[in-house]
Amino acid sequence: MSSLESLYQQIIVDHAKHPHGVGLVEGEETSHQLNPTCGDEITLALRWSADGERIESVAWEGSGCSISQASASLLSTLADEDADAGAAWTPEQLQALIDEFREALRSRGATPLDEERFGDAAALSGVSKFIARVKCAMLAWVAAEDLLQRRAA
C-alpha cells in the first residue's frame, strides 16, 4: 500500500470512529437514505443561512459501515470548512460538488477527487475501485441532493 493510500485509509477510519456533524434537531427537514444491499442508513439535514441562500452546515445521523459513516462526516466537515472560510455553498455549488463526487466514484479509479476542492473527502477516491462500496460512500451525498431537489420544487 502506498503512503497516500495509507493516509486516505487513516482519514476514513478516523472519520468513522470520530464523526463530525452528527446530531439532528427535531423538526429539521431531513432526507433518509438506505442502502438495501448492506443496510447502511443516513438521515441528513442541510442547515441554511438566515436568508435561505446558502448552506452553512450539514448535520446527520446514521449507522452502517465505516465508508458510509466517514463519507457523511467528510461531507459535513467540508461544508463547515467552506462556510468558515466565508464560502458557504449555494444550492448550485453543492449540486456541482455532488455531481463531481458521483462522477469520480463511478469512474472505477480513473477520476480521483481533487484534494483542493474536496479536502479530506478526496480520501474517498479509492472507493471507486470497489463497486459494491460506491453506494455506501454516496448515501450522504444522495441525501443532500434529495434535499436540494425538494427545496427547488
TrEMBL record:
Name any one GO molecular function. Answer: iron-sulfur cluster binding
CDD domains from the UniProt entry: IscU_like (cd06664)
Q: Which top-rank group of organisms is this from? A: Bacteria
Q: What is this protein called?
A: Nitrogen fixation NifU-like protein
- Tell me the organism: Microcella frigidaquae
Q: Which InterPro entries match?
A: NIF_FeS_clus_asmbl_NifU_N (IPR002871)
Entries under Pfam families matching the protein: NifU_N
Q: Which GO terms describe its biological process?
A: iron-sulfur cluster assembly
